[in-house]
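1st attempt posting a full record on here, be nice pls
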Amino acid sequence: MSDDVTRPRPVGLLAVVIAIVAFSLSSPIIKWSESTGSVIAFWRMVGAVFAWWLVLVIAKARTGRPFPTAETWRAVLVPALFFGTNIAVFFTAITRTSIAHAEFIGSLSPLLLLPAGAVLFGEHPNWRALRWGAVSLGGVVLVLYFEPEQGAATVAGDLLMVLVVILWTSYLLTSKRARNLGVNTIDFMACLMPLGLLTAGPIALVIAGGDVFNLSTRGWMVVLLLVAMTGMLAHGCIIFAQRLVPVATIGVMQSAQPALAVFWGFLILGEVVRLPQVLGMALVVTGLGLFTWSSQRGASRAG
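the predicted structure (as tokens):
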């Protein structure tokens, strides 16, 4: 590995921080919109379609690169269906539970990815890393159990977040297959967004019906913010940082994202947390950070 990646550059670390802040803001902003979550998800994806195809057209004009082939569209189809469903369900869950519950349940997907990668891709993970996963699970139990009596969490919303974890894990696993076929980032994202609408659109119609086209002014503001903030800026920063910062460092830094989202939830929405929940959050962040570090360390040794 080159020095450029093994020694993180400040500009790369700054890019990761920007991405983490952008991603952590998305949950409170979705809830602040006071709109149907699946409708926000649908229009956010529509906006992302235009944004990524603008990037693709500009890249084609500058470099002469071709548009995505039929083979690329086929490779991206399955992960796109998972992605569209995941976005629609996640945006719905955010409006039906607390930010703390949503973020810390959602943070558990790495614990599913480690064994799934071993089974599906023949990877050789560091199984001892799962001990840190147990620490995170214990932290999530504290976050869920000590929810304030008048809190925003609901069992239905929490169950939706469990489904989100499964869908997100499925998306990451199937997208890895597509990337292994040689699909580049711009082509992947340009195909992912319109294909994702095949599931996000019907879900929005089933939940909201005709209200899909009746977003409030605040709702449209949130859609535009999410397109720019998470659809473009955050993903772009992570892609940029991958050339300058070790993957393990990015993963450890991102483990702080759920706690930051809870902080924004307090500032923007006034959602409060109890002291035992704060302890649980600390356990989750610490456990995920050590889990990521141990996993990457084991992968490096295996390589």
